[in-house]
Amino acid sequence: MPFVARVLRHRLTAELATFGLVGGICLVTDIVLFNVLAFGLGVNPVLAKAVTMLVTGTMAFIGHRKVTFRHRKGAGLGREVVLFTTVTAASLVCGLAPIWLVRSGLDHTGPLWLNAANLVGIALGSVVRYLAYRHVVWGEDDPTHTSQPTEPADPSATASPAPGAAGSAR
Length: 170
Known about the structure:
This protein has 170 residues and is mainly alpha-helical. Helices cover 69% and strands 2% of the residues. The chain has 4 helices and 2 strands, in the order H-H-E-H-H-E. The protein has a two-stranded antiparallel sheet with strand order 1-2. Helix 3 packs antiparallel against helix 4. The termini are far apart.
């Protein structure tokens, strides 16, 4: 495999892995908070899901900006927040639609059905968010960012002489 293809594949793999890590943390938070709100506190499941998506959306912005897409160039914090919020709001439909369909369309209100619908919504929302974050919010590679320290072409060029070695052998 050519060098450039390996580097691009490695970067994409790392990006997807960190997206998954940040997403995994948000997923656990989403599921626990949804169940506490909907089944522990009796909050309407659609409202509970909306609240959990707002909480985990904030967590995701920080995680993706600082970790997942740190090597990509955004349009500045203010514009990134607006774009991220727009994408996240649009993806709310992906998260809410399965819950609404199961609850209102199919008239299932039990924890198993609602959690299954919640997981489907999380999966749909994740795909939409990854693609939009990568191509819209943080759309360009930042040429000034390096994910690995660079090494000088000739390591001996930066080596400092040993103490007492003033250019002549002892």
